[in-house]
Design brief:
heterodimer, A: 882 residues, alpha+beta, FAD/NAD(P)-binding domain, Gyrase A, domain 2, eight-stranded mixed sheet, 23 helices, B: 451 residues, Phosphatase 2c, domain 1, seven-stranded antiparallel sheet, 42% helix, globular, [pyruvate dehydrogenase (acetyl-transferring)]-phosphatase activity (chain B), transit peptide (chain B)
């Protein structure tokens, strides 16, 4: 291996010296794969096999080997860094919307900066800075939001005027700009050489790298990876890492046990020019002009400019196609809008001579975020792919997190937004992916406003009531493929067009949701909540109870008919899931979790439940339609339909009863609403759904019943200070940190996962605290609305970020929920957060650079809790979950 | 004065017509996919006519363009009548008998043609009885003649052309008791029309041409480029064979006066035409018919005027030249057009423009920079222009309209110049004829799946 690597390194130097290496190696690649004899034999076994020698594969190898795993083989079907990695633009940009992505990019930047020193491989790292331009006020708002989050992360960043832009870059036409964001530490690299540098360091640490070796499939036994099959023989292994980029989907499906990696390639074009008469300086900032859909960087004295067009060209839908690969030609007509945008931005480039239009396919995912983590179906099968054309920016950080995941069992940060378990098999249809990526790619440049929904790949999973609700004016959003109602547009009222409704300010549905909330408070509303994940766990003996007692932190040994809110915690006491569990009988339990838990929770439980044929778990999500009856008159509607007294005396909060509603029997009714309002959840076998809905609506008429959607629910739960898993709660948040100690039964008599960590926290205190903020001087009509991810300042110092927010129609104020930390003023060290610390501070929330005073609260307004609770819950005030 | 693009479009599209051959079981088994046609007037009223019809008693489709001169009466009559004459000429003996028996016994007639007409294409109601009687006489003669042989398309076409012209001539000589009809048949006979007619039946394509309209086949070469194949010869002074023919038919003494200023007898551009009895009848016959005719005819200086050096009529014939072509897979379309188009556009350009239009813009040759020195500005200009070309394609749903847009609006670079188009279309009536002629175009698209 060492000998091969020497050749590889000399190759690198040669390539860097010869401007034509691109074409030369291309042709070599296509003809020589069989001609050159393989000098080095593949090992028969290894701990880890990584497939893919691009930036992702080499970064994973680099980080794994740094963390002490040495027995690693990296396989590349062609040459190292010869795929998308080589052709991508090499821009390292930290200006990212999602905070985990921002952290990855920041880490990558720092890693690449020292890589040349570490490895001796010239990476071409140049700190140029980047300027993101705003042609509209809305764009400037979105840049200000990013700038706020960069600043609190310690990444230098400022909002600058068009004049300052002109000073930083001589060629830019600024007449149509309203402002810009300058990130001085952003950088340029030679992507292929970064990848080779990572490979070099990895091989020094013992990683074996084999080029021209393709993986045909991964062998699986009993749900675990056992080895890989290549065109040069077999390798037995415990771990497999799929870093195959745009081929990752196909590779995932090549084995007997398919692994769904929902990504799809699109063509991506950028332009290379000859140098300017006066060659551009190599440290000239990179320009991102999202309104023009282009980016422009300096390149060998000339420029490199590409973009994300409105009409992308997806390819390889039917899998790998040699013909298509060869046909990946320049398509100037397709590039024309981007070229126009470029010349508009830099008119002086008219006379600049073209060198080449590069067509470099990139892979995109259904939600614009990358795919990382372990397969929910095959243990030991890890994936890192689908970079949505930000592979270089994420490469370092993503490789690090995945390596940590493999070595430590979980990364050092919450990566749920990137976790492949957010997807299931339902996102793996090629038609779906093709349609969705055509929407996703243009979105790279589109304005990202709050509460935005994808328009493609919709109406996949629906409730049986979908048509009924739609006919009554329902407006829909989608979660995990399931259509859910946002709100109902009353007859005769029109909302804005989709495009016009994009706003950072008060949205057009404000009054509609307000009236739904009012109805929930004063009468009764019905919300279809069928999308929630529902499992049934039962056993012949006590196995179910015993297992659940171990896996959940609350005490589940409650009388039959009780409903328990509980976290499903990891070893560190963090929430892997937050659910409601009803004890249906001594030996069976009904578990309700958030919609996007369907894959994750299933995998988590499957991997931890004992392998016992007497213990069964079934996903019954599709079997039940769930109606949430919210409001003070819910009790009247239900009792009239069932002829059973359901007043709080007979049916107190947190109970579950099977009863008949209308003609339909066997409806599971639970006295919970996920909002803190009085009411019931009805779990209805789907064939009865329409009947029960009709009965409820008919009977409810005299009580003023109406339909409501999730926006109303959201407003209700946030004003009640209810945390929501996936939004407020994650694997790094413990019940102690969000005031849910009462849902943890440390003394329940059995051990449970996370117990030790929670005990320790109970003794030592918590380092962050879930807090509710009421915005004081915020004008709902005129000011920017909070969203989530806004920095929180205490006495002028940054202490944390918000995780969700909503307008409370009851308080007539905006409410933000978020976590407060306590950093030592001198060292920055994290200190214990006490109740006093929270209560004795002046708070401000930063919305796109503007700070609003906020009042912090650790408990919800008691005046908002109206209904009677079960006795043991009363003194613990009202923390529930959504 | 300036026309906006929508105004330009509404002028260009006013007469457009498209016909798609219906599919059965999702398949079109005909060798013709369909056709687009359109016409743009320069004369007021327009003197061009067009016709298209499917033969119902035999197989095949008939398409034709007719360019009238000295009025539109002759072109109108030919456009109504000629296809019936052709269809009847093609009918087998039994069918002719059946039809005759039906007429005889007052039964419903088998339909002979299915017309594909634009709402502006009209048939003269008043003359239909007269026309029908002439046609019936023709088929009765065919029945009597019964040769027993199968009908040859080429022969049928020639016979039909000649017979119709003969009937036009006879009807004018005989006259009609109805004064309106009497005047009509005279106007038909004293005006003229050229005709270019295609008959498509499977892979057999026949083009019969009389005059200077033209049929052109669009052929796609192996490399995807387009070339044109002529399927007709112009009958005018530019055609040596035609000049030769005319000279052969008359005494040597007339050689110099026969063709003057590229015109027949110094007067007529086409060397073959329907009607135009002034070039066919003897002087005596002309004088007699005019004198006994209605006053309007007598007052018309043109009809009374006898061509100079008029010694040995007839000087003009309606007999067509027929070209037979077996369709090949590379033959993608046929363009029939009056000389208004061919005066402004080279057939090679016509082939390319229609070819690119029909195969869609995605076949537009991609641009490659290769080793050339191209600046961003140059490339931008090129792409903008290509996009403009694409957008003009998207505006047209009809190949004939697209061709007219180019014929009228093309600038020196061969791309449509909106300003020019607007100017040409907003010319006042009296000026229009000086800058352009009536244009009539039919584009027939062939079905590569069948051929």
């Amino acid at each position: 291996a060492a000998g091969m690597f020497l050749r590889l390194l000399s190759d690198v130097r040669w390539r860097a010296a010869n401007p034509k290496w691109r074409r030369t190696t291309c042709s070599r690649r296509s003809t020589s794969s069989t001609a050159e004899p393989h000098a080095v034999f593949l090992p028969a076994q290894a701990q880890v096999v990584i497939c893919g020698g691009g930036i992702m594969g080499t970064s994973v190898a680099y980080h794994l080997s740094k963390m002490g795993w040495k027995d690693i083989v990296l396989l590349e079907q062609g040459r190292l860094a010869a795929g998308t990695t080589r052709f991508c633009a090499g821009i390292v940009s930290t200006a990212r919307q999602v905070s985990i992505e921002l952290k990855m990019a920041d880490y990558s930047n720092k890693l690449y900066q020292q890589l040349e020193q570490e490895t001796g491989v010239k990476t071409g790292y140049t700190k140029t800075g980047s300027i993101s331009l705003a042609q509209t006020q809305d764009r400037l708002i979105s840049l200000r939001r990013i700038a706020s989050s960069l600043n609190v992360m310690g990444i230098p960043c400022e909002i600058i005027t068009p004049k300052q832009v002109a000073q930083l870059h001589p060629l830019i036409n600024i007449h149509d700009l309203v402002g810009a964001m300058y990130v001085p530490e952003d950088a340029l690299v030679s992507p292929a050489n970064v990848s080779l540098a990572l490979a070099t360091a990895a091989s020094w640490n013992g990683v074996q790298i084999h080029e021209r070796t393709s993986v045909s499939h991964v062998s699986v036994q009993k749900g675990r990876v056992t080895g890989v099959e290549t065109d040069r023989g077999q390798i037995q292994c415990q771990y497999f890492v799929n870093c195959a980029g745009q081929w990752a989907y196909e590779l995932g499906h090549s084995g007997e046990e398919p692994v769904n990696i929902p990504l799809h390639a699109c063509e991506h074009f950028y332009l290379l020019t000859h140098p300017l008469k006066e060659p551009l300086a190599s440290d000239l900032p990179t320009i991102v002009d999202p309104d023009g859909r282009i980016y422009i960087r300096n390149w060998q004295g000339g420029i490199l400019s590409g973009g994300f067009e409105k009409n992308p060209k997806p390819l390889f839908t039917e899998g790998r196609n040699q013909l298509e690969i060869q046909n990946l030609q320049e398509d100037w007509d397709h590039f024309e809008p981007l070229l126009s945008a470029l010349l508009r931005r830099m008119p002086d480039l008219e006379a600049l001579q073209i060198m080449q239009l590069v067509n470099c396919p990139e892979s995109f995912t259904p939600d614009m975020r990358c795919i990382m983590g372990e397969s929910p179906t095959v243990r030991g099968y890890f994936v890192l792919a689908g970079m949505n054309s930000a592979g270089i920016s994420y490469g370092g950080g993503a490789g690090k997190y995945l390596a940590e995941w493999m070595v430590n069992g979980y990364p050092s940060e919450n990566v749920w937004p990137l976790d492949m378990k957010r997807f299931g098999t339902l996102q793996s249809s090629r038609t779906f992916l093709r349609h969705r990526v055509m929407e996703v790619m243009p979105l790279m440049c589109d304005l990202k406003v709050p509460r935005w929904d994808f328009q493609t790949g919709r109406q996949l999973r629906t409730s049986p009531l979908y048509d009924r609700l739609d006919a009554q004016g329902a407006r829909w959003m989608e979660k995990h493929g399931f259509e859910r109602v946002k709100y109902f547009v009353p007859p005769g009222k029109d909302l804005l067009d989709l495009d016009q409704s994009k706003t950072f300010y008060k949205p057009d549905w404000f009054d509609i949701v307000g009236s739904e909330v009012k109805c929930c408070k004063e009468a009764v509303c019905v919300i279809d909540m069928s999308s929630f994940t529902k499992f049934e766990i039962s056993s012949t003996g006590d196995q179910a109870l015993e297992s659940l007692q171990y896996l959940f932190s609350n005490d589940l040994d409650v009388p039959v008919g009780h409903v328990v809110h509980t976290g499903m915690l990891n070893e560190k006491g963090g929430y892997e899931n937050d659910c409601s569990i009803a004890r249906l009988s001594k030996r069976s339990f009904f578990m309700i979790s958030p919609t996007d838990q369907q894959v994750h929770c299933w995998a988590w439980l499957k991997n931890r439940l004992p392998d016992d044929s007497n213990l069964t778990m079934e996903d019954v999500t599709w079997k039940y339609t769930a109606l949430n009856l919210i409001g003070p008159r819910a009790v009247d509607v239900l009792s009239e339909l069932s002829y059973v007294p359901v007043t709080p005396e007979h049916f107190p909060s947190l109970f579950c009863k099977e009863m008949s509603v209308g003609y339909a029997n066997g409806i599971r009714v639970m006295s919970i609403t996920h909002t803190g309002e009085p009411g019931f959840m009805l779990y209805i076998p789907i064939e009865y759904a329409l009947h029960v809905y009709n009965e409820v609506m008919n009977m409810g008429q005299k009580y003023g019943i109406r339909n409501a959607g999730y926006y109303a629910l959201r407003s209700l739960r946030i004003e009640k200070f209810f945390a929501f898993w996936g939004q407020d709660l994650d694997a790094f948040t413990t019940p102690m940190e969000c005031g849910r100690e009462f849902q943890v039964k440390l003394e329940k008599g059995t051990q449970f996962v996370g117990q030790e960590a929670l005990l320790e926290q109970k003794q030592n205190g918590v380092y962050k605290r879930f807090t509710m903020f009421i915005l004081e001087d915020h004008d709902t009509d005129m000011d920017l609305w909070p969203w989530w991810g806004e920095p929180i300042f205490r006495n002028g110092r940054y202490v944390g970020k918000t995780t969700s927010s909503a307008y409370s129609y009851t308080l007539e104020r905006h409410v933000c929920l978020g976590f407060v930390q306590h950093f030592d003023e001198k060292t920055g060290e994290e200190l214990v957060v006490t109740t006093d610390f929270i209560n004795q501070g002046e708070y401000e929330i930063d919305i796109a650079g503007q700070r609003f005073q906020a009042k912090a609260k650790l408990y919800p307004f008691s005046s908002l809790s109206t209904h009677r609770r079960r006795k043991d819950e009363v003194e613990l005030s009202g923390y529930q979950r959504e | 004065f300036y026309l906006t693009p929508p105004q330009v479009n509404s002028i260009l599209k006013a007469n457009e017509y498209s016909f798609k051959v219906p599919e059965f079981d999702g398949k079109n088994v005909s060798s013709v996919l369909g056709f687009d046609s359109n016409q743009l007037p320069a004369n007021a009223p327009i003197e061009d006519r067009r016709s298209a019809a499917t033969c119902l008693q035999t197989r095949g489709m008939l398409l034709g363009v007719f360019d009238g001169h000295a009025g539109c009466a002759c072109a109108q009559a030919v456009s109504e009548r000629l296809f019936y004459y052709i269809a009847v000429s093609l009918l087998p003996h039994e069918t002719l008998l059946e039809i005759e028996n039906a007429v005889e016994s007052g039964r419903a007639l088998l339909p002979i043609l299915q017309w594909h007409k634009h709402p502006n294409d009209y048939f003269s109601k008043e003359a239909s009885k007269l026309y029908f009687n002439s046609l019936r006489t023709y088929w009765q003669e065919l029945i009597d003649l019964n040769s027993g042989e199968t009908t040859d398309v080429k022969e049928a076409l020639i016979n039909a052309f000649k017979r119709l012209d003969n009937d036009i001539s006879l009807e004018a000589q005989v006259g009609d008791t109805n004064s309106f009809l009497n005047y009509l048949v005279l106007r038909v006979a004293f005006s003229g029309a050229t005709a270019c007619v295609a008959h498509v039946d499977g892979v057999d394509l026949h083009v019969a041409n009389t005059g200077d309209s033209r049929a052109m086949l669009g052929v796609q070469e192996e490399d995807g480029s387009w070339s044109a194949v002529n399927l007709s010869y112009d009958h005018n002074a530019q055609n040596e064979h035609e000049v030769e023919r005319v000279k052969m038919e008359h005494p040597k003494s007339e050689e110099k006066s026969l063709v003057k200023q590229d015109r027949l007898l110094g007067l007529l551009m086409p060397f073959r035409a329907f009607g135009d009895v002034k070039f066919k009848w003897s002087i005596e016959l002309q004088k007699r018919v005019i004198e006994s005719g209605p006053d309007q005819l007598n007052d018309n200086e043109y009809t009374k005027f006898i061509p100079p050096n008029y010694h040995t009529p007839p000087y003009l014939t309606a007999e067509p030249e027929v070209i037979h072509h077996k369709l090949r897979p590379q033959d993608k379309f046929l363009v029939l057009a009056t000389d208004g188009l061919w005066e402004t556009m080279h057939r090679q350009d016509v082939a390319r423009i229609v070819g690119e239009y029909l195969t869609g813009v995605h076949h537009q040759q991609p641009i490659a920079v290769g080793g050339y020195k191209v600046t961003l500005g140059q490339m931008h200009g090129l792409l903008t222009e290509r996009r403009a070309r694409i957008s003009s394609v998207f505006e047209d749903q009809n190949a004939a309209t697209h061709l007219i847009r180019h014929a009228v609006g093309n600038n020196e670079f061969g791309t449509v110049d909106h300003e020019r188009l607007s100017k040409m279309l907003s010319l006042p009536e009296e000026l229009a004829r000086m800058y352009r002629d009536d244009i009539t175009i039919i584009v027939v698209q062939f079905n590569s799946h069948v051929i």
